[in-house]
């Protein structure tokens, strides 16, 4: 059976599984959406959170970026896991005790202000939208490859599927569906890594294989894989794999923006509001990170193996280039999507990949994880499985984000603020309109991406870092912080960060280099500066306008210890 | 007020903050310290075939993060019990 048929079968089977679980677990639990997840063990909740959290950026894009960026790719590995430490230690238990369902609800109540709530809603929409714009590209990459269409058509087909998945939805929040999605996603990520690790190094664990010596019969046998990568990089005019080229301050800033952003992402924070106890909120964060780490510790190995394999197949073991006519199928299959191109500059009929003028290949970073099993000649079912994993990752996160956008618009913005008199039916209609608009806009961004999936998603984290994180931290740890300070801080933080990203990505992309960046920090890392500005502005404005009222200060006192935590309320 | 006295409430919060700061110090040193600031210096050492700084940036920091959260869960549970503010 060919790869395409197998992909249809495996993707179809996983979809059937999600729907079956949704129907089965719904039977007893429609009465109360939130209690359903409340009765779930923290281990299960952690697994579901991991599925919710790991998107196309983690699954499809991250290892590809690491493969090309080497050490510099560590920003994503550390950034997207380290945030859970902040979340578990500084946010989750207190927000759980506070007992609200959404971040704007917390901001609005803690800062006793409708304006604060509205600004928080707008921030939530901006963050979720940026995030989903990145996802659409990832969905498009998967569909374009397996339907063998160009990337624009792939994005379009993916968008239609995501839209129906969400609008027909109700799947989100059903924890067991997400548990299944996690299993599919993790299995699909690890199986090819194990195969490739055994082939390349003889190690069953990709995590140790990554640091081992290359096995017999593979080009470069006997040398350490990482030394081989550094050697190949030097020979081909690329930056050394284990050292990277980004400046230290930029690596620092991006890592910080991603970590802090993780702790400020509305759809992740929400997961910790609905566990039964404060203690479970802490444990859930720990288990979520355990399950995320399973994938994140595999990612750098996949990146390393993929890079060596790519160079071996394109340039040949002797590094003289491989005849295009003898190119393996995966090169030709991916050429159909337009994501790999070959231009025979020296007209020798051979492909050659390098970091200098000899280069004849353009390889989109976002295809590496999907192409990896094909590059390593793994069985067709493994290739199909990876596609199913990619779809699971992209769908589960996109659906969650679309729900945040549509409920923010219809419930928080329209019903609670602008037009309180609309009926439930109108509210639902506006929710669908908001989802449709968000999908349409993000389809455009998917076809004309401002960066690779993981980079676009990084902007969303920067925005979250610059807006929510300081407001929540100050709200918990600085009980005298008042509404004026928090509002001013959020506005300055998000406007500054958004303006910086828009300037370098859309207004003046030609200037997007280290010479023009503020303190040498790229748009991906600027959220760190936005966060610092937010903290400073909040503090200064608070000092000028006086302390929060006493009842608010008492409220903050009461969220600082676990006893007496009731169920969450709207 | 769940605490028997104002002093106990303050002591609980102080112990809590001090635990969080200690754990965050480890969090910072391993990721930003070993993985970013000191990475070049640490790369002169090898660890199971990895350059040490590179290993911290791509694997070691993640493993440390997981351990930190579980240490926190355990120590906070003990603290809640000590001050009798644990959930019934």
TrEMBL record, chain A:
It comes from the Bacteria. This is Cation acetate symporter. It comes from Pseudidiomarina tainanensis. The lineage of its organism: Bacteria, Pseudomonadati, Pseudomonadota, Gammaproteobacteria, Alteromonadales.
UniProtKB/TrEMBL annotation, chain B:
InterPro entries: Na_symporter_ssu (IPR019886). The chain crosses the membrane at residues 20-42, 54-73. The keyword Membrane applies. Signal peptide: none annotated. This is DUF4212 domain-containing protein. The keyword Electron transport does not apply. It comes from the Bacteria. Keywords: Membrane, Transmembrane, Transmembrane helix. Residues 9-86 form the Sodium symporter small subunit domain. Pfam families: DUF4212.
């Amino acid at each position: 059976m060919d790869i395409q048929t197998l992909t249809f079968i495996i993707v179809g089977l996983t979809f059937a599984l999600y729907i079956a679980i949704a129907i089965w677990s719904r039977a007893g639990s429609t009465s109360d959406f939130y209690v359903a997840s409340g009765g779930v063990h923290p281990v299960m909740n952690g697994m579901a959170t991991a599925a919710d959290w790991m998107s196309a950026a983690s699954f499809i894009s991250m290892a590809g970026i690491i493969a090309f960026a080497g050490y510099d790719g560590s920003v994503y590995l550390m950034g997207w896991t380290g945030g859970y430490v902040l979340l578990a230690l500084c946010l989750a238990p207190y927000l759980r005790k506070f007992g609200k369902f959404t971040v704007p609800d917390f901001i609005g109540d803690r800062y006793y202000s409708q304006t604060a709530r509205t600004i928080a809603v707008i921030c939530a929409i901006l963050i979720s939208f940026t995030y989903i714009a990145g996802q659409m590209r990832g969905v498009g990459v998967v569909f374009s490859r397996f339907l063998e269409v160009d990337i624009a058509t792939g994005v379009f087909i993916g968008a239609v599927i995501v839209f129906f998945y969400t609008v027909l939805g109700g799947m989100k929040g059903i924890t067991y569906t997400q548990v299944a999605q996690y299993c599919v996603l993790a299995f699909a990520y690890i199986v090819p890594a194990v195969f490739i690790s055994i082939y390349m190094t003889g190690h069953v664990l990709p995590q140790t294989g990554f640091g081992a010596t290359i096995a017999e019969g593979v080009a470069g046998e006997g040398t350490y894989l990482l030394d081989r990568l550094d050697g190949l990089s030097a020979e081909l005019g690329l930056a050394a794999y284990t050292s990277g080229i980004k400046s230290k301050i930029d690596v620092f800033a991006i890592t910080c923006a991603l970590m802090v952003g993780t702790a400020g992402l509305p759809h992740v924070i929400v997961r910790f509001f609905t566990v039964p106890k404060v203690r479970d909120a802490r444990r859930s964060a720990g288990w979520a990170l355990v399950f995320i780490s399973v994938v994140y510790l595999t990612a750098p190995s996949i990146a390393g193996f993929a890079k060596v394999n790519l160079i071996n197949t394109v340039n040949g073991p002797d590094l003289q280039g491989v005849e295009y006519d003898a190119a393996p199928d995966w090169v030709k299959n991916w050429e159909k999507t337009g994501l790999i191109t070959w231009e025979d500059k020296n007209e020798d009929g051979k492909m050659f990949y390098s970091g200098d003028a000899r280069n004849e290949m353009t390889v989109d970073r976002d295809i590496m994880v999907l192409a990896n099993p094909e590059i390593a000649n793994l069985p067709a079912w493994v290739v199909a499985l990876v596609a199913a994993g990619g779809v699971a990752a992209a769908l589960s996160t996109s659906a969650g984000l679309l729900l945040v956008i549509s409920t923010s618009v219809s419930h928080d913005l329209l019903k609670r603020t602008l037009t309180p008199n609309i009926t439930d039916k109108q509210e639902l209609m506006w929710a669908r309109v908001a989802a449709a608009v968000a999908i349409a806009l993000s389809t455009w961004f998917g076809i004309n991406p401002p960066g690779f999936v993981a980079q676009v998603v990084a902007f969303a984290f920067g925005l979250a870092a610059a807006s929510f994180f300081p407001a929540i931290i100050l709200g918990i740890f600085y009980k005298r912080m008042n509404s004026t300070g928090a509002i001013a801080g959020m506005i300055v933080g998000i406007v500054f960060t958004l303006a910086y990203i828009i300037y370098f990505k859309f207004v003046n992309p030609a200037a997007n280099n280290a010479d023009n960046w503020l303190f040498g920090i790229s748009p991906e890392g600027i959220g760190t500066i936005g966060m610092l500005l937010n903290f400073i502005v909040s503090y200064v404005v608070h000092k000028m306008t006086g302390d929060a009222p006493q009842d608010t200060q008492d409220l903050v006192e009461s969220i600082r210890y676990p006893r007496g935590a009731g169920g969450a309320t709207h | 007020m769940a605490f028997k006295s104002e002093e106990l409430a303050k002591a609980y919060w102080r112990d809590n903050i001090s635990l969080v700061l200690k754990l965050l110090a480890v969090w910072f040193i391993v990721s930003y310290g070993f993985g970013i600031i000191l990475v070049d210096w640490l790369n002169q050492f090898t660890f199971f075939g990895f350059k040490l700084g590179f290993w911290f940036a791509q694997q070691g920091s993640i493993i440390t993060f997981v351990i930190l959260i579980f240490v926190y869960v355990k120590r906070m549970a003990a603290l809640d019990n000590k001050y009798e503010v644990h959930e019934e």
